[in-house]
Design goal:
The chain has 420 residues and is of the alpha/beta class. The protein is built from 19 helices and 15 strands. It catalyses: tRNA(Tyr) + L-tyrosine + ATP = L-tyrosyl-tRNA(Tyr) + AMP + diphosphate + H(+).
Amino acid sequence: MTNFNIIEDLEWRGAVNQQTDEEGLAKLTEEKKIKVYCGVDPTGDSLHIGHLIPFMILKRFQEAGHKPVILIGGGTGSIGDPSGRNSERQLQTQEQVKHNEQALTQQMVDLFGTENFQIVNNYDWLSEISLLGFLRDYGKLFNVKTMLNKEVVASRLEVGISYTEFTYQILQSIDFLKLYQDHNVQLQIGGADQWGNITSGTDLIRRVEGSEAEAYGLTIPLMLKADGTKFGKTAGGAVWLDPEKTTPYEFYQFWLNQDDRDVVKYLKYFTFLSHEEIDELAEKIKTAPEKREAQRRLAQEVTAFVHSEEAVKEAENISQALFSGNIQELSVSEIEQGFKNMPEATVSKEKRNILDFLVEDTKIEPSRRQAREDVKNGAIYINGERQQDLDFEVDPTSHFDGKFVIVRKGKKKYTLVHVQ
């Protein structure tokens, strides 16, 4: 693309919901490189893929030469954002907030690097404001009627909202003002549910700095799947960026299993592929959907971005091994990832007869008669090799660094046996 325009690109990707001043922002981003911020409260110790939605936009600004600023809400996180919720948040201890801040900071560095990127914490300035200072310097500038009309508050009036959460929009507005004054940040981005908080911030900046102040807001559409459900939730819960919570293999599989109807939207949103490459993949969905090339490319790109190229290789190794049954070559780490949600059993290190192993030790077979039948018929594989000898001795320490025995019954039914 000649004359690359970041806002036009975001619109092509379906990533723009509302803007406070469309023309002004397009002009500003063409004239100069700006600082853009997005906030995240440390309510947990890992981001999940729902958080990736605004951060992918920040990353695009970074790739276009602008400077992303991530605000970790050490101050706001201790009280809770009412956006997108129908009940009060549980307050966290300062220790929890601190632990979460550190974990999130590391994840941000992994995604954005350390060049042309900044992390700030709103605890640094919010903790300095006294109650009287808050009421005099900021409370005077907010009209209660306007605050009540914001969707984030209005939607909670039926069930009730505490004064603490009611004031959240003032605190977020102070954040934008501080970043505008001290760091020259001119744009805040966030999810669709943040519109009220973001516009409160641009209003505050103009009240304090004058009506000519160039501060802008942009929100991102709520992402829904083709079936109308919210993106990012699975039957197993959230898909986390922390490899301890969601293994890179599970992460890769999540993207690989996307519906044909959603995959182009996700390629536009979550990858840095060019318009031409995405159009080609869209064509392949029409002409050869069974090859799932678009899904594979999506899984490769997002897994490499969040984890690494190495993680992509491991995930593809595991997929291939499970599909073909050739699991002997898998590493211990690949076994731990690929078999994480499969049935498990535990045995000691001693060798034992295959029938004892299947019936008594692991309970894979319900009876010796059934076990005999399955072994003789060739339905049992130990560590990837078919075993049809009723006298076969299973040696739990012979494979996978002596940590696991993998039993396959039939075509696809795996059990991960831990060796103690």
